[in-house]
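Researcher: Structure prediction, please.
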Amino acid sequence: MRRILFGAMLCLVAVATPLYAQEDQRLQELEFQNQRIVDILAVLAEIGDVTILPDETVTGSATYFFSETTFSDAFANFLLAQNLYAIQRDGAVVVSRVLAEYDSASDTVSLAGRSVAPRIYLEALSRAIGKTILLDPLPTEQISINAESVPVATAIEIVIRRFADFELSEEPDYFYVRRIPSSPEQLSRTQPSEWIIAAGDQFGLQVESARSREVVDQLFRAAGLQYITFSQSDSVINRLFVSPRPFADALRVLLDQANLDVSVEDDLYILTDLDRRSVLRRFLQFEVLTLRNLTVTEVPNLLPPGFAGADLYRLDAVGNRMIFAGSEEAIRPVIDFISELDTPLSDLRYVRFDINHLPVSEVISVLPSR
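Model: Predicted structure follows.
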């Protein structure tokens, strides 16, 4: 049995067979470790002798093992595991996180995707139907959809259905997804003039429910400062109450809630989108634990099942260290447990020998096994 481990780059030479041919090309075992998905697809394209075109939605990395099988089965299983779809188009295979297919005869579309932002669905629909879909800034919340052979307007309504303050307007030559003012029941009990508590150069926030863009605008107006936003999102802020503090601190709290980042250039504040993980990363604690008696490769096998996820730490085999990242509640019990294990055995006597002329590895190699 043969296994090939792929690192950052690799080249393959395989007998080429067209995709889904009657005599399907067989794959030997292949293993990818933390490889970019687009690179894995490039390898599969080389093996299957087919043009595979990942679109802009195909991002990220994957660790994946291909057992010995046919190319078609391997390709289909990989797409399924990564929540990807393949569409035959002009002799090529387009790979995307969204499947949008239009049937002109029945004027219906099929739309599918898992954990995709609404804007991505609507852009894919627009390309499939060949008609413009105008969008007001949509929430960045990811949703899953599986709709088959539905009218175009219905597909768009499915995408925006979860967001009560958006509606679809259908025009002869285009569609328009617009944001509508919130109903009285959805409006915050506090008015925009009450969101910001200004006390000299101190600013507090008092928001029960409001659009992030509106609150940000009110804060800058209260401070008399200029800003420009390149954000495409307009999330809802719920129950944000902050006592008066310097403008920079108040703005940072507000932007963390709105998933935004800020930079300042010539007294002009520039706002850009920031993903949720980047926001949460600010609140992580980092700690390095250097092991004295255990080797880091032993530790994962010693941890109780479910005690610590692999995303909680990284192993540094060269320095025999473990690098932890997480909240204090998450990493402290794990560090304490490993520190308890990392102690010398009490029933042994330890003696240190300093070797002056030979490398340690050479001395160990000539010692009898006993």
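Model: The longest helix spans residues 328-341.
Researcher: Thanks, that helps.
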